[in-house]
User: Fold this.
Amino acid sequence: MTSKANHRSGVGLQVRGLRRSLGGQEILRGLDFDVRPGEIFVIMGPSGSGKSVLLRHLIGLETPSEGEIQVDGQSILAEGVMNKYRIAMVFQSGGLLNSLTVGENVGLYLTEHQLKTPEEIARVVAEKLEDVGLKGTEGKMPSELSGGMRKRVAIARALAIEPQLIFYDEPTSELDPLSSVVIAEEIASLNERIGVTSVVVSHDRELSFGIADRVAVINEGRIITIGTPAEVRRSPDPMVQEFLTAGFKRPATV
Assistant:
């Protein structure tokens, strides 16, 4: 990936000594990494590796047993910190409300919080849908769209709040190869244009190596390598090479 032209909107993310135990079982085992402002940082690994639990901690849905997560050096557990920054989430399923139109879904947060006038919200919705290649779909219902289009609507909804940090949960899951390519291109293009920091959690190797500035590979609750796609490909770690060629042996304990 080339360097971003504009880093002004992105924020950094810092993870220090992150541990999480559930039912006496250690799921996250002392994770340390930084996400740089404006980069696409991909966390990849097989099912059961701990990446979904990690994501829930990064967005503040779970509290670690030990360690800390910071946004621009401030703990996300400190009062008011998560409200200080514009953080968006694109869910694996898309998370659209089937009873609302595409336009209503995209503008939902702005409408519920009365952040703009109806006319301003309509302009934002039209702009963000055009950004993801769905100009003129405001009046459609989610049920009228393909899986890939619904994912792009979910991205447009995230963009509506002018985010500084976007989390993507398995953005290409359940999509056909062509739709997966479109979503990958969309993530990379948006990141390049607006300089937002993007954290992508995925098991999709093609997506990960295709869009990432840096990749962290997680297995059994530990990050076993981190670096640029080229550096990860050259890793001498046998677990990494097994994943790149055939996939990990699924852990029995996670």
About this structure: The chain is about 35% helix and 25% strand. The first strand starts at residue 13 and ends at 22. The two ends are 33 Å apart (CA to CA). Residues 69 and 75 are 6 Å apart (CA to CA).
